[in-house]
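User: Can you recover a sequence for this backbone? Please restate the input before giving your answer.

Assistant: Of course. Working from this structure:
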């Protein structure tokens, strides 16, 4: 792999990156470039400076739903991961998913819809326009990043399958193949990894089916070839390497809810006011900010409250955590 491991990074390179980010911040404040153009510039400039890999995706449209916060580096996003199918350490997925082949790939569409069946990757992706979505990502473990995803609004993909009125929830499953996913030979979770959303959450314009990162095809460690991104929820809802999507009338149980129901709920909306039983969720540690950087306050719904709070009116967010 061309990507450098964090241990190999010299302090001088870290300084370079800080200077680089500051320069962009200055340009931005001087009003020399618009936020959108800035984000676009940062994405491709940062990518070429840090040896990214993967095929470049073409015809990617920018989105007004992107944040103008500077994205984390390619290195941060691809070497600090949670992906228990490839090990429980943060660098395990980067090291152990190198040989994973995300093609050919197909997804089984099941349940309450008029167009069920097996769809191959190309059938799912090629009918749609790809969009860049720069989103905040907040892990339940209280670290955070900003990630320039490329993907398709999940709503557009779902419409392809024509869900019917019995579809109240959507359930997703990750590939279960211990030969290809060595972490599945251990019982760190009950495999396969499963997640779920309400139909309303799945159809929300912010909800993305990601196929790329930094303008390129998704790296294996980030969930190639298809992974969900739900930016107002804790990261564990954003299930990787999806092979099954089912429309159900009953609420699905997610893997983390199944494993420790007192700690991980179905909704998992980012909420600084509801502590995890073992730690506070009031603040977060931005990855890449350096070891001396202070934590920053976590925002309700990870900063997406204006767009999503109405999905939960009348719901007690302490009980439905
Ligand atoms: N299949 C699967 N999906 C998963 C996970 C996992 O272990 N297995 N980890 C989740 C968690 S806890 C987080 S924070 C995000 C991390 O995504 P990233 O590695 O692309 O930053 O992936 C989520 N999706
Ligand atoms: Mo997470």
């Amino acid at each position: 792999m061309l990507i450098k491991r964090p241990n190999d990074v010299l302090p001088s390179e870290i300084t370079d990156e800080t200077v680089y980010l500051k320069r962009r911040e200055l340009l931005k404040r001087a009003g020399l470039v618009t936020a959108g153009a800035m984000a676009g510039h940062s994405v491709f400039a940062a990518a070429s400076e840090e040896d990214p890999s993967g095929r470049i995706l073409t015809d990617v449209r920018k989105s007004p739903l992107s944040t103008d916060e500077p994205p984390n580096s390619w290195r941060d996003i691809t070497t600090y991961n949670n992906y228990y199918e490839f090990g429980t350490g943060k660098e395990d997925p980067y090291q152990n998913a190198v040989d994973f082949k995300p093609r050919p790939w197909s997804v089984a569409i099941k349940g309450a819809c008029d167009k069920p069946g097996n769809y191959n990757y190309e059938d799912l992706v090629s009918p749609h326009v790809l969009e860049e979505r720069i989103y905040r990502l907040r892990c339940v473990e209280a670290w955070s990043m900003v990630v320039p995803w490329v993907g398709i609004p999940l709503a557009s993909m779902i419409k392809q399958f024509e869900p019917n009125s019995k579809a109240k929830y959507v359930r997703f499953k990750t590939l279960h193949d211990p030969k290809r996913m060595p972490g599945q030979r251990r019982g760190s979770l009950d495999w396969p990894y499963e997640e779920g959303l309400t139909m309303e959450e799945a159809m929300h314009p912010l909800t993305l089916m990601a196929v790329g990162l930094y303008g390129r095809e998704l790296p294996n460690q980030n969930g190639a070839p298809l992974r969900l991104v739900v930016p107002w929820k804790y990261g564990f809802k954003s299930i990787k390497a999806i092979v099954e999507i089912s429309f159900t009338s009953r609420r699905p149980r997610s893997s983390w809810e199944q494993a420790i129901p007192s700690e991980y709920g179905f909704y998992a909306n980012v909420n600084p006011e509801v502590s995890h039983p073992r730690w506070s969720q009031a603040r977060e540690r931005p990855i890449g900010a350096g070891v001396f950087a202070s934590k920053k306050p976590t925002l309700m719904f990870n900063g997406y409250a204006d767009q999503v709070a109405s999905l939960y009116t009348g719901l007690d967010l302490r009980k439905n955590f």
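That completes the design. The pocket of MTE (ligand 1) is lined by residues 81-85, 137, 139, 174, 193, 222-223, 235-236, 238-241 (CB under 6 Å).
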